[in-house]
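Example: DNA-binding protein HRL53.
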Amino acid sequence: MNKNELVSAVAEKAGLTKSDAASAVDAVFDVVQAELKNKGDIRLAGFGSFTVSHRAATKGRNPSTGAEVDIPARNVPKFTPGKGLKDAVNG
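Written out as structure tokens, the predicted fold is:
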């Protein structure tokens, strides 16, 4: 499912116009992104949690030259599914 399909599904399920549903979907994405950017987390009971995980700096190798490369530390988004979502997916 891509974003347009998600917007259509939300519009149909919630009885909204597609433009209202698109605004709602965009707002949710914006809030999640802003919260994670501020290193916060979002916990949705029964669905899952969006958190920020820190990856430490490490050394890597360029596969074509074999030269050692420094890989900088960075923060990455992480999603952990909740029990309700796991149960829904598994049947």
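The chain has two domains: 1-38, 41-91.
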